[in-house]
Write a structure and sequence with these properties.
mainly alpha; globular; Endonuclease III, domain 1; 10 helices; two-stranded antiparallel ribbon; single chain
């Protein structure tokens, strides 16, 4: 993990420096609070699609995902039917995995039914008392991500385990995992 100087000389989390796409995501989005239902549904969906793949694959297909999944409007995606699933299975703009596509549609139905309760559930797992990590503090899960994954599954959300839940927590600002020396702050 650690930090390294970015193109402007400022220290960044080293993972963010391998591509301009990562740098932009790191500097403008990763770890910043997301509180809208559709924003959280988008991040949950993208993290689930990332499972087993590189995040850069998902990041580079993000606009394709947004087009394919109706801008991540849970109400609109909840209305998708088998014809939509078949359409998505041939859409080269996204990752074409039937289980993940079907989970995204099923999850939209849960999220649409929950509304603001979905946001409240996710944000109830925010970690506010842990300092930013050092170079040695890298983790893929936490006790909170284990609990969040369990709560999401109990609510009916599919394709989410502790690692996906932790990536979601990092992405939407439930935990600040910018390395302590990183010049980017989200607070």
């Amino acid at each position: 993990m650690g930090t390294a100087p970015g193109p402007d000389g400022r220290l960044r989390c080293s993972w963010a420096l391998s591509t301009p796409d990562y740098l932009a995501y790191h500097d403008t989005e990763w770890g910043r609070p997301v509180t809208s239902v559709s924003g959280l549904y988008e991040r949950l969906t993208l993290e689930a699609f990332q499972s087993g793949l590189s995040w850069i694959t998902i990041l580079r297909k993000r606009e394709g995902f947004r087009r394919a999944f109706a801008g991540f409007d849970p109400g609109r995606v909840a209305a998708f039917d088998e014809a939509d699933v078949e359409r998505l299975l041939v859409d080269a703009g996204i990752v074409r995995n039937r289980a993940k596509i079907e989970a995204a549609v099923a999850n939209a139905r849960v999220v649409a039914a929950m509304g603001q309760d979905f946001t409240d559930l996710i944000w109830s797992y925010a970690v506010t008392d842990r300092p930013r990590p050092t170079d040695e503090d890298w983790r893929a899960t936490s006790p909170e991500s284990v609990a969040l994954a369990k709560a999401l599954r109990q609510a009916g959300i599919r394709f989410v385990g502790p690692t996906t839940a932790y990536a979601l927590m990092q992405a939407v600002g439930l935990v600040d995992d910018h390395v302590v020396d990183c010049a980017i702050t989200v607070a």
